[in-house]
């Protein structure tokens, strides 16, 4: 790449990015950030890469990244920083990556360098183990700490500007984060691991090797499920517990639409190692569409009867669907062809299929509507609607009336839940 501010390589299905400004202690200049984001985007689009590792090239000083380029910061004014979204592009670019990003911190990670590490999904910190003849003491981290984390911006008259005050408090708690930000003091690798900032401490000179091995293990997993898992964990920071659980459950349901989940479960039952084939570009694209379609379906307004049935049908027949608010057509996974190439007709409020798949669906749906399960689902659905309908309380008005109505509704729902068969419990899910 131009100016060689970033060195890139691929190893074991892992994209490796090295910050290459050793004389400037790998300071994050605007040019380096631009090349870094370009490399991340390139690996994101590379189907051979399943995970990304970011590390720093070292010279005489062991440095991951010493922070933003002070020479560039010194020239900034408020207007330039505000209008130029200074450092925002770095945070947005790393956060937009769907593949796991690992930080192999092999030295000082200060200021913007610490913030860059915290933008990554997993941090590995280098730590020198003290030599000892005692097996018990050989595992003790008593000296030679190499990886150091800190937010010393206050010492130069500013504050962290790329997530240092926000991500650090989520990682180590308010007390430690406040102390580090207000004093500018650093945290060593062993302390960072105990606080929860670092996932694992590793021996010197093996930081990159171990990070690549971890990335290779991630890259060997089912690609769609790997992306789902990362997305679900990241959402935990932004959502309330109830919303996070609902989001996780939807992705969990969606994971059953992948061939890898079936292969993994079969392998577990048969006590063998699963064969998870790397997905070619086209097949991976279709799989991601299937996941997106399934998520859109679960998020859409639809009859509980149709929803509960179609959830099962999609897992088996993979019917092509779209949400009412989505104008994009998806492939029909049965024949892997664009639905726009087939005669398309609306089968239900939500389902669009090619001619062949639509015919099979109609046959299955007709059989389902004649089954006892359909009758029971229709009956229970009506009961749920009646239970959720507020009942006016005679003689009570205003907020007290609404409160009493909600209490009666909740009591009816509890009684209905107790009488509901386990196989129809999904109708009660929000």
Structure explained in plain terms:
The chain is an alpha/beta fold and 430 residues long. It has 2 domains: 218 residues, 2-enoyl-CoA Hydratase, Chain A, domain 1 (Alpha-Beta Complex), CATH 3.90.226.10; 206 residues, no CATH class. Helix content is 49%, strand content 11%. It is built from 18 helices and 12 strands. The strands form 3 sheets. The protein has a 6-stranded mixed sheet, with helices on both faces. Strand 2, helix 1 and strand 3 form a beta-alpha-beta unit. It is globular and about 75 Å long. About 19% of the residues have low confidence. It holds the Pfam family zf-CHY. GO terms for molecular function: hydro-lyase activity; isomerase activity; zinc ion binding. This is Enoyl-CoA hydratase/isomerase.
Which structural class do you get from the secondary structure elements?
Answer: alpha/beta
Estimated share of beta-strand residues: 5-15%
How many DSSP E strands?
12
- Chain-averaged pLDDT: 75
CATH structural class of the largest domain = Alpha Beta
- Biggest sheet, open or closed, and with what strands and sense? 6 strands, mixed
Report the helical percentage: 40-55%
Strand order of the largest sheet: 1-2-3-5-7-10
Overall number of domains: 2
What descriptors fit this protein?
single chain; 430 residues; alpha/beta; 2-enoyl-CoA Hydratase, Chain A, domain 1; six-stranded mixed beta sheet; four-stranded mixed beta sheet; 18 helices; 49% helix
């Amino acid at each position: 790449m131009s100016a060689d501010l970033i060195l890139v390589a691929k190893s074991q299905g892992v994209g490796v990015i090295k910050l290459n400004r050793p004389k400037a202690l790998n300071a994050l200049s605007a040019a380096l950030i631009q090349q870094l984001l370009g490399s991340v985007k390139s690996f994101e689009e590379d189907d051979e890469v399943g995970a990304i590792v970011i590390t720093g090239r070292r010279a005489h000083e062991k440095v991951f990244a010493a922070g933003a380029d002070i020479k560039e910061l010194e020239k900034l004014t408020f207007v330039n920083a505000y209008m130029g979204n200074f450092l925002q592009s770095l945070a947005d670019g790393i956060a937009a990556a769907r593949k796991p990003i690992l930080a192999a911190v092999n030295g000082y990670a200060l200021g913007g360098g610490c913030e860059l590490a915290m933008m990554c999904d997993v941090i590995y910190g280098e730590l020198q183990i003290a030599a000892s003849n005692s097996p018990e003491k050989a595992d003790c981290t008593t000296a030679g700490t190499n990886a150091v984390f800190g937010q010393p911006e206050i010492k130069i008259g500013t504050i962290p500007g790329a997530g240092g005050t926000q991500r650090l408090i989520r990682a180590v708690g308010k007390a430690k984060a406040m102390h580090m930000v207000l004093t500018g003091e650093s945290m060593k690798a062993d302390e960072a691991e105990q606080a929860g900032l670092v996932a694992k401490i590793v021996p010197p000179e093996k930081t990159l090797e171990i990070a690549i091995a971890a990335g290779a293990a991630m890259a060997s997993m089912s690609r769609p499920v790997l992306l789902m898992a990362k997305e679900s964990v990241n959402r935990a920071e932004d959502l309330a517990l109830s919303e996070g659980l609902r989001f996780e459950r939807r992705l969990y349901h969606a994971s059953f639409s992948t061939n890898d989940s079936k292969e993994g479960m079969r392998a577990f039952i048969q006590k063998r190692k699963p064969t998870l084939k790397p997905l070619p570009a086209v097949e991976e694209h279709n799989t991601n569409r299937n996941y997106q379609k399934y998520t859109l379906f679960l998020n859409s307004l639809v009859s509980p009867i149709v929803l509960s049935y179609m959830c099962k049908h999609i897992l088996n027949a993979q019917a092509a669907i779209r949400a009412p608010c989505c104008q994009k057509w998806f492939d029909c996974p049965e024949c892997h062809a664009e639905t726009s190439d087939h005669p398309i007709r609306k089968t239900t409020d939500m389902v669009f299929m090619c001619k062949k798949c639509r015919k099979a669906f109609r046959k299955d749906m007709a059989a389902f509507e004649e089954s006892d399960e359909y009758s029971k689902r229709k009956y229970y659905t009506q009961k749920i609607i009646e239970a959720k309908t507020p009942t006016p309380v005679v003689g009570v008005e205003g907020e007290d009336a609404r409160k009493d109505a909600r209490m009666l509704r909740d009591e009816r729902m509890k009684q209905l839940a107790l009488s509901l068969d386990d196989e129809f419990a999904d109708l009660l899910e929000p």
